[in-house]
Design brief:
495 residues; mainly alpha
């Protein structure tokens, strides 16, 4: 996922690759709010109207973390993303070595891959749920056949994954355009439906103030652990705007553009998450949210906009879901290819076609997600399993920032291209890293066990732990190949 840490000194402020402004970073965040969709009713069922506050806390947490990532990205411009930072910091300058640093970097990459890989299955299920609700015949059939919704989700997955792989077979061109389209498609229906709900006359503040917590909620030890688990689950959706920091090496003026992009992303996300959850809770209430567990935005749109307006808005929302599946499919496939090229997993997973598209990774990701849909109980349960991977990846990245900060003063790099986080951010990163590991891990596992059962916990743990045998096998294969190629050289030298 990354090259050596020392390569950071090579990039100049005048590098031609620096083509982005802070507005591009802000545009990245515009597509993030659609990630709230799987969690609207999940959170309300867990913690009542306090879910609104959960989103605010989670976006704030994401903002605290990406400040550290912004500095890492500007100091290690050749390291790609969160896994790249961890690989660069823990792996050092050694190449083709399989020490602890390489394992930590690879493990972080695997967990980050699992995090966004799950977007495919989560949104395939969500699309299936909305289609069933929109089409009366399917709705009637699903009411008497519980297995029907899973069949539809699998069918959606096969159709959408196959179509997207076919569309992208010849290359990833138009990525920036796709990003802007995703932003518009996701924000417009979310904002229109939510604002219409707030001002349609159906919004009742009592739905929030009188149901702030479930009636059986208690702030005892188990309640606190459960609360921590909810925060861990929330960051899967609300902290995804870290990409604005990761693109730091491509900003024209990193020192100025990075903070502008980060503040802009934080404001967009905190407003979006607050607006959507508040509108759904205030209009539908706890009973309405429970009755529309799989499709709360459809119910909100029907109440505030009528059937015609609701159908138009939901079609746009479905298009946004397909777009975010495309983003996740391309990102997951590329991440798997990068791990294979880095030597952390088998080369077959990194196989690219003649156009350079990582079809091996994309096919693997698609098949895996179809299996997850078949095994998982719901979009929420899959999301909860994937959240564990995000916790591990964020924790390792924050610890990498703390470790790297010791060498910042000695790093030979043009100061004009570096975004300097405040000095106290070493302590902030350490604190949030400790929150992630071990507290969020404990909370996530506990929440999974209580709300979804042992099966969904095992799905997450098995996928995460699968990296260990894959890495050990890749290590053995690559070291054996290296030894075989060096042996003839040594023999010829002796002769």
């Amino acid at each position: 996922m990354s090259r050596t840490a020392d390569s950071a000194v090579d990039l100049s402020i005048n590098d031609p690759n620096r083509t982005l402004s802070w507005r591009h970073g802000l545009a990245i965040a515009l597509g993030v709010p659609v990630l709230i969709l799987p969690s609207i009713t999940v959170f309300s069922s867990m913690i009542g109207a306090f879910a609104i506050v959960i989103w605010m806390l989670s976006v704030f947490q994401g903002f605290m973390q990406i400040i550290a990532y912004g500095e890492l990205a500007s100091r290690y411009p050749n390291a790609i993303g969160i896994p790249g930072f961890v690989q660069a910091v823990f792996g050092g300058e050694k190449k083709n070595q399989y020490g602890l640093g390489k394992f930590i970097g690879g493990f972080c990459a695997w967990n980050y891959w699992f995090t966004w890989n799950a977007v495919l299955s989560v949104f395939a299920i969500l699309i299936g749920n909305y289609l069933i609700s929109i089409i009366p015949v399917m709705n009637d059939f699903a009411a008497t056949n519980p297995w029907f919704s899973k069949v539809i989700s699998l069918a959606v997955g096969v159709l959408v994954f196959s179509a997207l792989m076919l569309v992208n077979y010849a290359g990833f061109g138009g990525g920036a355009v796709v990003g802007y389209v995703l932003a518009v498609l996701s924000l417009v229906p979310l904002f229109v439906i939510s604002i219409a709900g707030l001002f349609s006359g159906h919004f009742q503040m009592s739905n929030i103030t009188q149901h702030m917590f479930p009636t059986d909620w208690s702030w005892n030890a188990t309640g606190v652990i459960f609360f921590i688990g909810i925060l861990a689950l929330a960051q899967w959706s609300a902290c995804g705007f870290e990409a604005a920091a990761i693109y730091a090496p491509q900003y024209k003026k990193p020192r100025k553009d990075i903070p502008k992009a980060l503040f802009g992303c934080g404001l967009v996300c905190i407003f979006s998450y607050f607006l959507v959850q508040t509108a759904c809770t205030g209009v539908l209430g706890m009973d309405g949210l429970a009755a529309n567990y799989n499709d709360p935005m459809l119910a909100l749109a029907q109440i505030s906009m009528g059937n015609i307006g609701a159908i138009i808005s939901i079609i746009m929302l479905l298009a946004a879901m397909v777009m975010i599946i495309q983003t996740a499919l391309l990102g997951s496939g590329s991440a798997m290819a990068s791990m294979a090229e880095e030597g952390n997993i088998q080369k077959i997973f990194g196989k690219r076609n003649k156009h350079g598209v990582p079809m091996g990774g994309m096919v693997t990701v698609s098949i895996l997600n179809l299996g997850i849909i078949a095994l998982g109980d719901s979009a929420g349960s899959i999301l909860a399993a994937a959240a564990l991977g995000y916790v591990i990846a964020n924790g390792l990245a924050l610890f990498a920032y703390v470790k790297a900060s010791r060498n910042f003063k000695n790093q030979k790099i043009d100061d004009a291209q570096v975004f300097h986080a405040p000095k106290i951010w070493v302590g902030v990163a350490l604190a949030f890293g400790i929150i992630q590991i071990p507290f969020y891990i404990i909370g996530t596992v506990y929440l999974n066990l209580i709300d979804y059962g042992i099966t969904d916990v095992l799905i997450g743990v098995v996928i995460i732990c699968l990296f260990i045998p894959l890495w050990l096998l890749a290590r053995w294969q690559n070291l054996k190949k290296l030894k075989d190629t060096e042996a003839p050289v040594e023999a010829n030298a002796t002769t």
